[in-house]
Write a structure and sequence with these properties.
Blueprint lengths: L1 H17 L4 H5 L6 E7 L4 E3 L8 E7 L3 H9 L13 E9 L2 E8 L6 E7 L1
Antiparallel strand pairs: 1-2, 1-3, 3-6, 4-5, 5-6
């Protein structure tokens, strides 16, 4: 009887921890990255002033400017399953129901990378 209660409780904790809890959690950049802002889906512009309501897309930069990271994030395609960007090697870091966190690093050997988190 106790085991039946423990499994759903553990599953609930895993689901809660799999996605960011609030806008402030999204503003905390991963270690080594700079937070570049949110994409406002109403105006289709990137902003640091707007906190996302519902669907969101957040960009982070390492070794490049935020403008370059946002430009690269806009050009990512999802052909054949995962994220793809010419000149970059993209890797899905975490994914859950309506949440995706991926990182793309430059193939040139330079320490340039951008990271994007999307969800709803």
């Amino acid at each position: 009887m106790r085991l039946r209660r423990a499994v759903p409780a553990g599953l609930l904790v895993a689901v809660i921890l799999s996605a960011p809890a609030s806008a402030s959690a999204l503003e905390r950049a991963p270690v080594g990255y700079t937070w570049c802002g949110y994409r406002d889906f109403v105006t289709n512009e990137w902003s640091r002033n707007v906190t996302p309501d519902g669907a969101f897309m957040v960009a982070y930069a390492r070794g490049m400017t935020c403008a370059a990271a946002i430009r690269n994030a806009r050009r990512v395609t999802f052909a054949r399953g995962g994220p793809r960007r010419p000149g970059y090697r993209c890797l899905t870091m975490r994914s859950a129901h309506e949440f995706l966190d991926y990182r793309c690093t430059a193939r040139s050997g330079k320490r340039r990378a951008f990271r994007v988190r999307t969800g709803a």
